[in-house]
């Protein structure tokens, strides 16, 4: 008998990955690779990646370490693209749908031509934005939304926030740029921190009512603009460095949230007399632990898309590089590592 069966070669795709954890100036810190194209199962979507964005988490994961990978590790946790295929249990999206999302830290990242993601953490891309503009939003938007509404307990009704103020430390960065806009929409008085004229101007452009210098003591600056205390503090930069200032500035029964892990213990006793609350925010918590409310990230991304399309929220993309390749990703990482970027750095097109 003639065996007419012919094996089909595994499809491959372009990606940017790493084998070694190296300083970003090293050309091998991020390299162009070819890897197998994945297939969706369960509630996964296979997304054709059109644009990506870079976040501090990318730099942190890629930062120098002694270990090496046996297969290329792909980073990237901001994607805008088009659904190519859906898993057998997926029901929220169909092939051809335009989407945006941040993905999961426990799975391969989105710096590849195609990417698998659980549909419960995916939103419909704002129709008014390009793929590059949309790719700037997911990770920072989820972080800002969860920080304000889930961790700090900010009310969604503007009337409930009358007379209340929030201090956003690092207001010109990626998360700060979204948090400022969301806080203004919620009716809060927004006081941002910045240290350079360009970042201060950016924070004001996005809606900050006041801007103070995070290299100086907070309370005297707050009093200078008419505030003896603030109801909420969102810390997006160096938690331990600002801890004493935050404890001094927070109102009795106020709430502080930080997204930045510490290198040393925090003295929580500083909050005791004020009965103040401290909470952490990590937008990967829901996807890492597959929490029962994991689908809330799908819902919030859809809600933000509606706000964007209504003109209430603007994208925070500030620079776009093309195409998506190792050379441009190394440039983007280097920009972030200066600590002086305003808004988001985006890459588009393979």
What does the secondary structure layout of this molecule look like, with pairings?
Blueprint: E1 12-20, E2 31-36, E3 44-54, H1 56-62, E4 68-74, E5 79-86, E6 98-101, E7 114-118, E8 122-124, H2 131-135, H3 138-151, E9 165-169, H4 174-185, E10 189-194, H5 197-205, E11 210-213, H6 218-224, E12 230-235, H7 239-249, E13 250-258, E14 277-280, H8 285-289, H9 296-309, E15 317-321, H10 326-337, E16 344-348
Helix pairs in contact: 3-4, 3-9
InterPro entries: ADH-like_N (IPR013154), ADH_Zn_typ-1 (IPR014182), ER (IPR020843), GroES-like_sf (IPR011032), Lipid_raft_assoc_Zn_ADH (IPR052585), NAD(P)-bd_dom_sf (IPR036291), Quin_OxRdtase/zeta-crystal_CS (IPR002364)
Domain Enoyl reductase (ER): 25-347
Pfam families: ADH_N, ADH_zinc_N_2
How would you characterize this protein structure?
The N and C termini lie far apart (45 Å). Helix content is 27%, strand content 28%. Helix 5 (197-205) links the parallel strand 10 and strand 11. The chain has 10 helices and 16 strands. With 350 residues, it is an alpha/beta fold. The radius of gyration is 21 Å and the shape is globular. It folds into 2 domains: 12-137 and 285-348, Medium-chain alcohol dehydrogenases, catalytic domain (Quinone Oxidoreductase, Chain A, domain 1), CATH 3.90.180.10; 144-280, NAD(P)-binding Rossmann-like Domain (Rossmann fold), CATH 3.40.50. Strands 3, 5, 6, 7, 8, 15 and 16 form a 7-stranded mixed beta sheet that branches. A 6-stranded parallel beta sheet has the order 11-10-9-12-13-14, with helices on both faces. A 3-stranded antiparallel beta sheet has the order 2-1-4, with helices on one face. The model is unreliable at 1-8 (pLDDT under 50).
């Amino acid at each position: 008998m003639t065996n007419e069966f012919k094996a089909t070669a595994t499809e491959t795709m372009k990606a940017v990955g790493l084998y070694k954890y190296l300083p970003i100036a090293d050309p091998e810190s991020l390299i162009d690779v070819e890897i197998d194209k994945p297939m969706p199962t369960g509630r996964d979507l296979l997304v054709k990646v059109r644009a990506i964005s870079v976040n501090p988490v990318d730099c942190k994961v890629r930062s120098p370490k002694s270990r090496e990978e046996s297969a290329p590790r792909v980073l990237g946790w901001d994607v805008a693209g088009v659904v190519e295929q859906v898993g057998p249990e997926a029901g929220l999206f169909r092939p051809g749908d335009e989407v945006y999302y941040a993905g999961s830290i426990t799975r391969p990242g989105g710096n590849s031509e195609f990417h698998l993601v659980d549909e419960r953490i995916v939103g419909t891309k704002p129709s008014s934005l390009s793929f590059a503009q949309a790719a700037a939003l997911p990770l920072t938007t989820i972080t800002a939304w969860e920080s304000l509404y889930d961790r700090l307990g900010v009310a969604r009704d503007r009337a409930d926030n009358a007379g209340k103020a929030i201090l956003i430390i690092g207001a010109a960065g990626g998360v700060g740029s979204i948090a400022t806009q969301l806080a203004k929409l919620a009716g809060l008085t927004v006081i941002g921190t910045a240290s350079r004229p360009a970042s201060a101007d950016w924070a004001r452009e996005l809606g900050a009512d006041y801007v103070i210098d995070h290299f100086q003591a907070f309370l005297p600056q707050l009093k200078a603009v008419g505030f003896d205390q603030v109801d909420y503090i969102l810390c997006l930069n160096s938690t331990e460095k600002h801890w004493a200032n935050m404890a001094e500035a927070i109102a009795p029964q106020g709430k502080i949230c930080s997204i930045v892990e510490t290198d040393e213990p925090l003295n929580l006793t500083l909050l005791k007399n004020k009965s103040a609350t401290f909470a952490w925010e990590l937008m990967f918590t829901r996807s890492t632990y597959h929490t029962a409310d994991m689908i809330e990230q799908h819902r919030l991304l859809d809600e933000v898309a509606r706000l964007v399309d209504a003109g209430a929220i603007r994208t925070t993309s500030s620079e776009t590089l093309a195409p998506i390749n190792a050379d441009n990703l190394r440039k983007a990482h280097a920009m972030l590592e200066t600590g002086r970027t305003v808004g988001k750095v985006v890459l588009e097109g393979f």
